[in-house]
Design a protein that fits this description.
By secondary structure, the protein is of the alpha/beta class. The chain has a single domain (2-108), classed as Response regulator (Rossmann fold, 3-Layer(aba) Sandwich). It is built from five helices and five strands; from the N terminus they run E-H-E-H-E-H-E-H-E-H. The protein has helices at 10-23, 35-45, 61-71, 86-94, 107-117; strands at residues 2-6, 28-32, 49-52, 77-81, 99-102. Strands 2-1-3-4-5 form a five-stranded parallel sheet, with helices on both faces. Helix 1 (10-23) links the parallel strand 1 and strand 2 (28-32). The longest helix has 14 residues, at 10-23. It is globular, with a radius of gyration of 13 Å. The protein binds magnesium ion.
């Protein structure tokens, strides 16, 4: 299974990866630091799931989500963001994200994501 983790903050990426390594130890993990890099890696690697931050330089998570869904309408994207306003959540769900979780994500969230949000 290929997983793409996108966050401009290294701490943000590491917290997602730390949980992934517990819950999905066999996953092949790719990292991107902005939306543009994420889009390029998505095209190249076609990951099974994407963990995507919203606030990033160069290309933010909203734009990256939109473009990823244009590349593959069945893409499975989970938003991990410090912006926990309901408006942000509604916006990303409307754009095709499977769900949205507040930072920092924990192992319980990760279990829930793989059991309820993603179909892999
Ligand atoms: Mg950020």
């Amino acid at each position: 299974m290929k997983i793409l983790v996108v966050d401009d903050s290294k701490i943000g990426r590491m917290s997602v990866i730390k949980s992934l390594e517990v819950i999905k130890p066999d996953a092949e993990i790719f990292q991107a630091v902005n939306g543009l890099e994420a889009l390029e890696l998505f095209r190249q690697e076609r990951p099974d799931a994407v963990f995507l931050d919203l606030t990033m330089p160069v290309m933010d998570g909203y734009e990256a989500l939109k473009r990823i869904m244009e590349v593959d309408k069945n893409a499975q994207v989970i938003i991990i963001s410090a912006d926990i306003q309901n408006e942000a959540k509604l916006r990303v769900l409307a754009a095709g994200a499977k769900n949205m979780y507040p930072k920092p994500i924990n192992d319980e969230n990760m279990v829930q994501i793989f059991e309820q949000d993603l179909s892999l």
